[in-house]
Amino acid sequence: MRSPRVGIHPAWFVAAVAFVALVGAAGFRATPGVMLHPLHAEFGWPLAVISAAVSVNLLLYGLTAPFAAALMDRFGIRRVAAVALLLVASGSGLTVFMTESWQLLLCWGVLVGLGTGSMALSFVATVTGRWFVRRRGLVTGVLTAGGAAGQLIFLPILAVLVRDSGWRTASLTVTVAALLVVPLIWFFLRDHPRDLGTTAYGGSVEDQDQKPRGNAAVRAVRALGAASRTRAFWLLAGGFAICGATTNGLVGTHFIPAAHDHGMAETAAAGLLALIGVFDIVGTIASGWLTDRFDGRILLGAYYALRGLSLLVLPTLFAADSGPSMLVFILFYGLDWVATVPPTVALCRTYFGGDGAVVFGWVFAAHQVGAAIAATAAGLVRDRLGEYDLAWYVAGVLALGAAVLSLLLFRARRHDRVTPPADGLARPGRWSLRTT
User: Fold this and answer.
1) Are 210 and 193 in contact (CB under 8 A)?
2) Domains in the chain, please, with CATH?
């Protein structure tokens, strides 16, 4: 029986600290788009080479996630998050001394990739999985929106700094932002409700997970081995790979250079990308609310279909000024940017139970593989053809394919059955899958 609680539950304070940490870690996520042309102008490196550094970052950002989730289970959220932010600060700060392209690969790619990967969406899945039973989807949406909030805060600032003071000042700004969050994480983030003598929000003592023992890397690999034998994993991973290709990899990295190709100032293009972040916050929180109430498979299908249609019309909207049509694209695409995360996290938890956060880490790794491929491929398209149009059209078709993959989850296993929600509350339109 649940004991009555008075005042604000500690889970909300943990969520607030996690949100601020995600905003700080998101600083680097806004960096590549505003630095491609300055680095190209100063060092003469081809865009494909600079994009390759972004691809290494995106790849490690994803591949680190499942191991980071297992490490958080083993050693605690606080320690892993603090080390991750120190890696982000180191990688961003060291770029100011680089003179060769391999140093860009090391700093942008490896150090920052490992750091941001440890603060990726598996961090969100771990925090919400430990601290929330009720409102889990909503909090997942809010924390996911932290990345968009970081983009919203940092992108216009970084664009102005690059224009007025150079890219090195922008890099050092990201370093300082990451370092400022470390004390907040260390002193205020708590690993588990039992550390404060309480339970998860809306949960009971029976809902608390036991602390995993053994090697975290082994656990991550074993979770992948078990999940990879299911059709559901490959459908989720395939859809999320396309999600990464059509967001971080393509739009996040190449939207500003593409707009600049059509005569738009980089600061104006950065403002549009930041505006995507504004609508993304609204869309992701709304998606979390919907995930608590409706079937995640239907939500994913709708999100990917709308994204595909918007990307197919994007090449016709670029101009020197942002007209009404471009603003309409920003609205619809922004609402959809990472709205896919809450239902994907929920479906991983549904299909894979206690390993849901670790399996989501692997699904997110697929997201970043897709992003890495798209970042490099779009750079090659621009270098070879002199424009990005082909990249936008291919991305639109792929997003429509992801919608199909999401709907195929209805047939992932023939013996899937619909069961009531775990909290026992019947809600119209809400479905939950449990494999027997």
Assistant:
1) no
2) 10-192+222-418 (1.20.1250.20)
CA dihedral 396, 398, 403, 404 (to 10 degrees): 130
Q: Phi/psi of residue 199, each to 5°?
A: -120, 170
**pLDDT for 300-352, tens place per residue?**
999 999 999 999 999 988 887 777 888 888 888 888 887 898 899 889 988 88
Query: Burial, 196: exposed, middle or buried (Cβ in 10 Å; 0-12, 13-18, 19+)?
Result: middle
Sign of the Cα torsion 389, 392, 396, 397 reads positive
Task: Determine phi and psi for 198, rounding to 5 degrees.
Answer: -135, -175
Among candidate residues 240, 241, 280, 276, the one with its CA nearest the CA of residue 255: 276
Evaluated on CA atoms 312, 318, 324, 330, the torsion sign reads: positive
> Which of 190, 62, 140, 119 has the alpha carbon at shortest distance from 349?
140
Count CA atoms within 13 Å of residue 367 on its CB side.
27
Alpha carbons 338 and 368: distance in angstroms, whole number: 13
- The rounded Cα 313 to chain-centroid distance in angstroms is 24
Is residue 120 left, alpha or beta, with left meaning phi > 0 and alpha meaning psi from -120 to 50?
beta
Q: How many CB atoms lie within 10 A of CB 94?
A: 17
pLDDT in tens, 2-22: 444 447 888 888 888 888 888
